[in-house]
Design a protein that fits this description.
This protein is α/β, with parallel strands linked by helices. It has 14 helices and 15 strands. The protein has 2 domains: about 190 residues, Glycogen Phosphorylase B (Rossmann fold); about 160 residues, 3-Layer(aba) Sandwich (Rossmann fold), CATH 3.40.50.2000. Helices cover about 40% and strands about 15% of the residues. Strand 4 and strand 5 form a beta hairpin. The chain is globular. GO terms for molecular function: glycosyltransferase activity. It holds the Pfam family Glycos_transf_1. InterPro entries: Glyco_trans_1, Glyco_trans_4-like_N.
Amino acid sequence: MKIAVAGVITKPIEQNPFGGTEALTYLLVKGLVSQGHEVTLYCAEGSKTDATHHVYICDPKEAIKSSSNVDFVYPYTLIEVKKIIEDVNKNKYDILHVNFLKTFLLSFFSSEIKIPILHTIHRDFFEHQEFYNLYNTIGFNKNEDFCFVSKNAFSKSLLKNNVHYINNGIDIDIYPKSTHTQFSSYVWLSRIDPLKGPDIAAKAADKLGLSMILSGDIDRKKYQSYFDNEVEPLLSDKVLYEPAKGLERKKELFQQSKAFVFPIQWEEPFGLVVVEALSSGTPVIAFDRGAMKEIIIDGETGYLVNPEDGLNGIVEAMKKLESLSAAEYMTMRNNCRASVEKNFTYQRMAKEYISLYLQLINKFNS
């Protein structure tokens, strides 16, 4: 097949990026090309993937600027949409796969595209009635389908027609199973954002007198005050903070940690970082929100905590982990890796997308 993939333009798409959507796009392209398909990727300058062709839209530094209360990502995304329309109609692709966060922007112009369109939905847009009503005013085109990244997101969507779900995948070779035999510290790893719950993770470790490393960058100014007021006061000689330091340090943190604590405060549509931890053999303790129950097997690869139990629920789950015998704990670590090998590889993800592409192309041509 000849496949066009629209990626984000706020960051280069390359191997081992820290953004979940960029990582997904990189691996999707890799999987499609490895199966013998021709792929054109629309992306930010500096992107380096296995795509057959790259169409560079803009300098990502420009796309993240703002001026007069206007985020430049919107006009630059519309520039991307314009280039996509011109290119796909001229070069006769079999399908367009839209894989950027603000995928809804392309729908305003989908009637101009004369091939099937698949949107992967990475956010919870379609769980909100007001957004759905607004989107509905555009008019859904028969050549558009929507793919959610988890069964949970799929089930909560107000969209009911032309909808599918495919779980994300990772490159398990990049996150090998830990060979450590001693694990003392816990880890929280994500971007600094109240929705990701670093303050709750820190409080839980402090309450139990356990060591924890919080690792992540503050990539939005509005979260600096949250860090200064809600996270930094919790730091101590046992609860440490470090900015994200690159892939090797990320792997090291997962491999040496007793568990990844992830007290998310929203309905996370998927959570690649959870799968990366499990691939490393590291159990995950998380609130049972969003797709967590599709990724974590409670009691086997970590613990799911009722969100209503709050901080105390996270503390109790950490106590459970601490109470495991050495043999029980190592069995859990082995279960973590095995679950990812079975369910969450990028190769599996790409094969499922290829099958869906063929289904949509046949529907479009019938």
